[in-house]
Amino acid sequence: MSDLKYKRIVLKLSGEALAGDQGFGIHPPVIKEVAQEIRDVYKLGLQIAIVVGGGNMWRGESGAQMGMERSQADYIGMLATIMNALALQDNLESLGVPTRVQTSIEMRAIAEPYIRRKAIRHLEKERVVIFAGGTGSPYFSTDTTAALRAAEINADAILMAKNGVDGIYSADPKLDPNAKKFDSLTQMDIINNGLKVMDSTASTLSMDNDIPLVVFNLNQPGNIKKVVEGDNIGTTVRG
Ligand code: UDP
What we know:
Elements: E1 8-13, H1 28-42, E2 47-52, H2 60-65, H3 70-94, E3 99-103, E4 112-113, H4 116-124, E5 128-132, H5 142-152, E6 157-162, E7 168-169, E8 181-182, E9 184-186, H6 187-193, H7 200-209, E10 213-217, H8 223-228, E11 235-238
Parallel strand pairs: 1-2, 1-6, 2-5, 3-4, 3-5, 6-10, 9-11
Antiparallel strand pairs: 7-8, 10-11
Helix pairs in contact: 1-3, 5-7, 6-7
The structure holds uridine-5'-diphosphate (UDP).
């Protein structure tokens, strides 16, 4: 534990991370692999909170583009994150990792409501806490939720797991062979250069609260462990 760079983290998993190549829904072998990665890191003894997205099922913006009222569409997205959280909880518990799901929208039959002090208590008792339902408000994202919850629980860092991308680049590396990978950046660099890492609300919130963000590739086994042990992988963003 003493060798770890971060002692309390917020891991942001996009919905996409649970979908695998099929790109939609939850792919059981993929979520199992993600859970195994988390279990390996959990065993190191650090405190882990997870924010899950819902983009593998629904995005409010897409619903709005189809003519749906935006807030209503966003609530569907928030419910999608809760489905992902329950699936992740199931996978983690089957590997022997104790967990609690806390939802920002009350759903007491299946999860606890989000209570900050209780979340911290769970972490101290070595339970992985999964924050579901985003912020509970439309027009926000789960990236913003990660920045918000990280500030609320005094996390040491936000680990932003990406699918197949190993950090932040000056341009899309799949489209531009000259794209340059950054080892470190500031939130201001991201905002000023319009780099697509997280939405601007999430960026400004992390910047204001001075919480480092590490963007790394989830698809490489052992990467979460490398980040918490302080290996220089991915891109580190400081306030
Ligand atoms: N969402 C929301 N408020 C929040 C978080 C999420 O309205 O605080 C909705 C929004 O519609 C979003 C969807 O939930 O499109 C899924 O979340 P997100 O797009 O952040 O998931 P990810 O891209 O990480 O899979």
